[in-house]
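pasting for ref
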Amino acid sequence: MTTTSLRGGLRLVQLLLIALIVLLIVRGPLYGLVDDGPYDGAWGGPSRSGAWLAHAAIAVPIGAVAGALLVAVERLRRRLTLTEQGEPAAWWVRPAAVTAVVLAALFLTLWTRQL
């Protein structure tokens, strides 16, 4: 993979993380506004407040991790940009970028197959 394609792949990883964060906000802390119920089969159900709290308790930490990953991917993308401009790069930048892109593709594939 070229550096340009890796940077583009990392941008797609960032879009995936942003979409995940938006989904977590909508389906986590705002769960009670999104789903009208009944909450008998929902996590934390059968009450609306229990389902709301359970979804929020799961979504908030995952959202924090996704936000940290978003920052890490941006830093990695900037390191690749510096490499293109002739700056010396650490040995791990390209393998880390390839790993991030492959893992994001795997995550997206597995997620869409479960739907």
